[in-house]
Amino acid sequence: MTASQAHVRRTARTAASGHTAASGRGEPPPTAGRRAAGEQLARRTGRVLLRWLLGVLLRWLLGVLLGWLLVAFAHQVVTGSFWLWGIPDPLPLLLFFAGPLVVLAAITMLLLARSALPRPDRILVSLAAAALGLIVLHLALSGRTWLWDIPDLMPPAVYLLLPLALLAAVAALTVRRQALARRTRWWVTLLALGALVLGAGQSGLNLRALRGGAGGTVPPGAIRVASWDTLQWDTGGNPGRFYRYLTGQHADVYLLQDYAHPASGPPRLVDDSQRLRSAFPGYYFATAGDLLTISRFPVAASAAFETNPAPPAGTANIYFLKGWKYSALRTDLRIGGRIFSVYNVHFFDRFYLNVVPLTPTFFRNVRGLDVARRAQFTRLRADISKNPHPLLASGNFNTQPDGGDLRLGSLTDAATRSRSPYPATFAFFGPALWRVDLTFTTPAVGVRQYDIRDPHGMSTHSLQDVLVSLPSR
User: pLDDT averaged over the chain?
Assistant: First the structure.
């Protein structure tokens, strides 16, 4: 062996012993390092793939929504119909529900354009300011101007859910230690709390349901009232099923609206007197226009409120208003030697569906309907204020409980006795989100129970089932 070969072997042994020593000091072997790198690469690849899939899904959903929006809008412009294959034009829904919030948030974003806040912070602050501005405008304008009639159509739960979502977003970002300026957290929290404090009472939330809702023991002689907007009577194609549903309520008093059949002109009022007498033997009947009251108790007197003998100005295109002259029917029932007044109510809508939104005709309709609704409310309030008897007013007010035009003095909302934390009666498309069918009583009338009954597809309005007791003499 030459001297150079010996030197090479000594060098190799030294390198090997150095590697062994290094391994003994805790450095990972090459296989472990490659495994960890592979796992990290797999996680990173999974996150990238998930983001890609979510992006594709979001773009697909937005594309479908935009496509449907364009098709439905074109269909409404050409045909004048709000519905296409049984699905509504989404443009009015987006305008009504998201429009005011988006406008307020956009204004705030413009005001914050020159601030040093990052863009995500500005978006959060703008949404919080919009949530507060929305409830402030609602409290200030609802029922006072027709300009707020459309924003008033938002589901009232928005006033509760929106600030809660903002507070939850701040909490989640703080827990995850995401980059969020301290002043952003404070501003969003304060604005959202302000919106929550002002909006909780306007949200339609029934807190009494948490304590049971019902009004205690039911005394003997309690009166069951069923109130329902039938949506053009029995036009669902199965009159037998319709009448079985009505008689199955076993009510003492029925307050029914839309006692009419659909028509291209004024509604064709129904004369179902023979079948009604067969279905409700021994009951008494009172009717005016599309309002029908059925009572197990004798009718002492009845009076119809003809508040709209002619359609209001600006609504000549709304064909069915020509036959919608009566907004309420008061019926005095004789019960055990006393009078119990019941008001069957059906007020005008806030807008006409089959008109393209944001056009001059659309706004003329909204303003004309608002004028007529004010006259309807005024007439009802005037009669109630002079009525010395215990009374109940129920029906389709086409107004939500948080509406500013719903000022009925000392009357009590019967839905506070509901066992549902969010009693909703109207399903436009999908679940019921609104309560436009309302029942009110004078304080002397005890509301023992209030329930909302599923109409089983026969109407977009649910039936109100109310159990009341009269004051002792």
Answer: 86
